[in-house]
Amino acid sequence: MSVVPAPVARQPWRMLFPLVALIVFGGLVLYSAGGGSWDPYAASHLVRFFVFLAMAFVMSFFTRDIALVLAFPIYGVVLIMLLAVEAIGFVGGGSQRWLNLGFMQLQPSELMKPAIVLVLARFYATLPIGMIPTWRAIVPPGLLILTPVALVLLQPDLGTSLAIVFGGAAVMFLAGLPLRWFVGAAVAAAALAPIAFFFGLQPYQQKRVFTFLDPESDPLGDGYHITQSKIAIGSGGLTGKGFNEGSQSHLQYLPEPHTDFVFATMAEEWGFIGGVAVIAIFAMILGWGLKVARHSADRFGKLLASGMVATIFFYVAINLMMVMGLAPVVGIPLPFMSHGGSSMLTNMICIGALMMVDRWNRKAPRSGLQR
Question: CB 3.0–4.6 Å: which of 32, 145, 260, 362 could bond 168 by disulfide?
């Protein structure tokens, strides 16, 4: 008989241990980014995590039927919140993206990332297999994706719009839509890219693309962010300068050292070894998520889990590419390390959804797979 209580033993410790380690490490990085103080970043980062972890545990007890019933209402509520942003949203940094809730500034566009995954998983789980190659499999989901994307682009927030499209497209691909449709969409996007660039993007967004292509052309202007990020990462070397010894962040050369460029803050102090450790932990968490999706006993669980993994992966991949100069600066925070309530909430919703599907898997009969 095990000495560990069954409810404790059943928890997904393969994911929870790396997640908590990443959160604690992120807290240390934010402690340094705050000038060697727990305030204003590190303490709130840890508190938010444990509050949202409790929320994730509550989510894990939702049944499949509850998740199916809540999918469209949740999507509708988040869509209404996006409309509210346009009407009464809080303006910060030249963008109108937040709702002032008093105790926090909520960014509804962040919530749409898991919401679009949930509603599309619900849609395809109930769509007959025979309709997958027809217009019924692409037109309604396309409208479900493009409606919030249009509202988010008005804020304007290109990075979050791309994240919503990526999560939605991942669910559509895994649902079995014909590959030729995705190839055709990619070709059409490539053909329309110049038009979208010159007539669809804001001037500052166009500057970001030009800066990405040649950041050294204006190192003290538009290229300042990425130039300082590269300096911070490169100066860390193999083992880093040491905890709380990062000059780029402490001397305020590195912009946003606690949010978008937190990985650069970490790499300067912990070096290449720290960077590899962070990436390895993300690989462990995402690998666990893919295992949950693979072992799911029904289409809804598979699509929901896969979509949540894709959402977290998009955050991680784009942020790391951004701080290393491999992608334009689009304002995507690094999950579980960057300071920010809306980002933490979104990623913990994804974790909660994965824990929920994992619980379904453990309770599902193993004799055969359902549709």
Answer: 145
